[in-house]
């Protein structure tokens, strides 16, 4: 039986796999996350997910390694993880009363074979006041989150509507991974 290895330090991705009762272990290596500007955004993210999975696949060559990356985009502007509170405030203020697209890319390396995909979900924010943004930032939940919020946590109070798979917004479209794993 092949092992499934999640090549990610994200507690949210871990929780999602556990929620779906997938038996896995975690092993990851920190890489420089550099997006290839020559590719369309979904392909950039797929390449980054692959780069996260690749070093782990060499440690587990006969097993299934899953790498992932998530990005929030407003129009054509990418909103990664904010570096500080001011940057987080600016992101949330920009997202207020607007619809963004959240992309989650996955790379699965299985015994040398590579499968990649990218899923997207539309998220519409409520119209936020400066006080609402600051109250949310006071929770510190925004730290380390693309777009400066966590939809599965307190951040859901910022959201008016979700069109698509909420797990894509959280960071791992598990239903698509399950379809891949069910081929066994």
TrEMBL record:
GO terms for cellular component: cytoplasm. It comes from the Bacteria. One of its GO terms (biological process) is nucleotide metabolic process. Its cofactor is a divalent metal cation. It is an enzyme of class 3 (hydrolase). Its EC number is 3.6.1.9. It is found in: Cytoplasm. The active site is at residue 69. It catalyses: UTP + H2O = UMP + diphosphate + H(+); dTTP + H2O = dTMP + diphosphate + H(+). Pfam families: Maf (PF02545). The record marks 12, 70, 152 as: Important for substrate specificity. The keyword Transferase does not apply. SUPFAM superfamilies: ITPase-like. One of its GO terms (molecular function) is dTTP diphosphatase activity. Keywords: Cytoplasm, Hydrolase, Nucleotide metabolism. Belongs to the Maf family. YhdE subfamily. NCBIfam families: maf. Nucleoside triphosphate pyrophosphatase that hydrolyzes dTTP and UTP. May have a dual role in cell division arrest and in preventing the incorporation of modified nucleotides into cellular nucleic acids. This is dTTP/UTP pyrophosphatase. It comes from Thomasclavelia cocleata.
